[in-house]
Write a structure and sequence with these properties.
Helix content of chain A: 25-40%
Strand order of the largest sheet of chain A: 5-4-3-6-7
Largest interface: A-B, 58 and 63 residues
Radius of gyration of chain B: 25 Å
Oligomer: heterodimer
CATH class of the domain at 59-151 in chain B: Alpha Beta
Strand content of chain A: 15-25%
CATH architecture of the domain at 59-151 in chain B: 2-Layer Sandwich
Number of strands of chain A: 7
Strand order of the largest sheet of chain B: 6-5-4-7-8
Radius of gyration of chain A: 27 Å
Number of strands of chain B: 9
Strand content of chain B: 15-25%
Largest sheet of chain A: 5 strands, mixed
Amino acid sequence: MAKREAPEVNAGSMADIAFLLLIFFLVTTTIGVDQGINRLLPRYEENPPAPPINERNILRVLVNKDNQLLVNEQLMDIKDLRQAAVDFLENNGDGTCGYCQGKKNSNSSDNPDKAVISLMNDGQTTYQTYIAVQNELVAAYYLLRDRESKRRYGVSYREMEYVYNDPASKATEGLVDELEPKVKKIQDMFPMRLSEAEPKKNF
Amino acid sequence: MSKFKKKKSGAIPAISTASLPDIVFMLLFFFMTATTMKDSDLMIENKLPKADQTAKLHKKQYVMYIYAGKPSERYRSTLGQTDRVQLADKIANVGEIRNFVISERASRNSEDEKYLTASLKIDKDVKMGLVQDIKQELRKVDQLKVNYTTTQGNPID
């Protein structure tokens, strides 16, 4: 018997098959957006009690239906909001905050622990403006927290917090336990007291 | 000298397409890894606002999505012009969020529950009145972890 050579498999249609799969995946999938501003909502209460807060310890941010900003009764551009919030938070009026670099203005907040930012929207404010304001206020807190965290531990607070909150970190022994006191410490230094009032409904 | 004449066959040789499958497979694998399956068809417009103080969301098993926006062009005749909420793949009332959160919780491990985050994918032109209503509903079922999902960018411009 003559020895026959095995015939070669024709791979010409391989490209077509691969294209078919590729197009299938292109159609059925999306590139996901998986980032955003994390916030913790307050617990729901029927009649929220109004805690006694000194007027100078509140930074009032109002956004009206035309998306204009009123900060402590003054019209403000959104570009200046971050700096205004930072100045307010670390003002250190009563001098009890050793790590603050504020101006110790007696008409502004006593210390970061007491300082509250109160945000109020109109029902007609657009979500875009709301996010921009949120972004600036959150940025002010993170700027201060990062600064303290860098000074004390050499890493930014943002990184620590992400690892601390990541469910995958549970797998590494002792990682969460090690980070917990650090994260809590920084959170205590600049507690995020960002309250949101109910918007006036007029729609 | 006939040795040298052999090459000259005149016609241009065909381009080899043997590596074409490899290239396409490479693209295929890129898309398979970089994208996620669409889980719901959006019936509303959903252009997210920009922000730069963002944190990445954790794995998908810890996230539930709530969409809001104006009904898109082809649904406008049936759904109207005003901002609506979409849960999974159907348009819902704000009041239905409660049951949605409860059923999302039930479909997950009890261990994962405390990491469960509500990702709010809200169109940038939605009015705050609706957003506030959504938040109120979430608070009522104690779903306090929220993420205002945004695209990366400077919000001021």
